[in-house]
Specification:
259 residues; globular
């Protein structure tokens, strides 16, 4: 049985051969995802509201009368937050923003497909990140259903919601691997694959914590998450290797969808 180190080694082996293509695809993915986030923020009014708050805070911090008090709380005491409703763009803009935000789901599915293919030494093009839009309704349905079950697991305390997160963590991989499968089938098969393997995936993801902290530190210093262009494919390739090992192992009996 492979360890987290083994999965990372397999990921780095692929990256040595395809680093340029992998980083380029990660860049396109990040740019598209960022564009969606910016448009969503503008449509909902959240972005201009945040900009106004930043302006007011900066003004307060530059006010000598406030600074002379020596009280950090004086900034908050003298800060008048703008009314969020003044930045509300209307129901049509909210619906448009919601639909736009949903597009990140098939986009993420496309990136899973891309890294899974690369992990199997089947090179793909940058356009592969849009693969998920070929099955947009299934990816959205899968995301909504898994999200609902995780939410119910959290509020009902039948099982910790985090267990459901890992139980259904392979559902998207199963779907992009075989789009003919149904949403519930993918979730059930994920439950089978992850039986006894949740802790292994948790440890694999935890093994990247150092790189994630370093990436965040660099992003705070230079203002750009440049290391993510290397870290993203690294993490996804390791996870793809994990998925492939689960497929090659013995398959346990079917599991119910809930609980």
């Amino acid at each position: 049985m492979s360890t987290s180190k083994d999965f990372r080694l397999r990921a780095r082996s692929v990256m040595r051969q395809r680093l340029g293509a992998l980083m380029l695809t990660a860049l396109v993915f990040v740019l598209v995802d960022t564009l969606i986030s910016i448009l969503t923020g503008e449509l909902t009014g959240v972005a201009p509201w945040n900009r106004e708050i930043s302006r007011l805070v900066n003004e307060a911090l530059s006010d000598p009368a406030i600074l002379d008090t020596g009280d950090p709380m004086a900034v908050l005491d003298n800060l008048k937050l703008p009314d969020a409703m003044d930045y509300f763009r209307g129901p049509f803009a909210m619906v448009l923003a919601f639909l736009l935000n949903l597009m990140t789901v098939p986009l993420s599915a496309g990136y899973v497909y891309h890294t899974l293919s690369e992990s199997r030494h089947s090179p793909t093009r940058v356009s592969s990140i849009f693969y998920g839009f070929q099955m947009v309704w299934k990816t959205l349905g899968l995301s909504l259903l898994t999200g609902l079950l995780v939410f119910l697991g959290l509020i009902l305390f039948i099982v910790p919601g985090v267990i459901f997160v890992y139980r259904y963590s392979m559902s998207l991989y199963i779907l992009v691997d075989d789009p003919s499968k149904g949403i519930v089938q993918c979730m059930r098969e994920s439950g089978q694959l992850m039986r006894g393997n949740k802790w292994r995936l948790f440890k694999l993801e935890l093994s990247f914590i150092g790189w994630m902290l370093l990436s965040g530190l660099i992003a705070n210093i230079i203002g750009i998450a440049i290391l993510d262009l290397w870290l993203m494919p690294y993490m996804y390739l390791a996870r793809a290797a994990f998925y492939d090992e689960l497929l090659s192992g013995p398959q346990p009996a079917a599991t119910p969808l809930w609980p």
